[in-house]
Amino acid sequence: MKILIDTDVLLDVALAREPHLAASAGVLEWAEAGGEACVAWHTLTNCSYLLKGGRPFLVELLKLVEVSSTGTADAARALALPMTDVEDAFQVAAALAWHADFIVTRNLPDYRHSPVTAISPADFLEKL
What are phi and psi of 104, to 5 degrees? Predict the structure, then answer.
């Protein structure tokens, strides 16, 4: 099973956001144990900006996940998706490029038109 981890899940862990921390940390623990996980390239810049000094977190993150390779065609695909949030559409394009089975996110409503199934961290962990 291959997953793309959305930015909100990573921020739950980096910022110890309750009540989401346990499930989100569980997703990263699954990746650390050998689960196939990736993040979108822009997730790294988003985390860096939002964490203000989050470089150590990102260094550790890259030991656990891959970064989905995307390019111009993927960006065009994202912009053609019937999604209102462009950043979420870029997440979908990254998931498609990496052949992810799921996008693990807490932001489920914004992914209702995604061709890749969105699943919450807690529901993902229940599938294991």
Answer: -90, 115
Task: Give every CB contact of residue 127 below 8 A, 6+ residues apart in sequence.
Answer: 1, 119
Amino acid in position 16:
A
- Given a contact cutoff of 8 angstroms between Cβ atoms, the answer to whether 10 and 44 are in contact is no
Phi then psi dihedrals of residue 53, to 5 deg: 95, 30
pTM exceeds 0.70, yes or no: yes
Sign of CA dihedral 100, 102, 103, 109: positive
Type and span of the H or E element at 1: none
* pLDDT digit string, tens, across residues 100-115: 999 999 999 999 999 9
SS3 102: strand
- In whole angstroms, give the CA distance from residue 97 to residue 9: 20
Residue 120, SS3 per DSSP: coil
Least Cα distance to 114 among 52, 98, 91, 124 occurs for 91
Cα–Cα distance, 3 to 85 (Å, whole number): 20
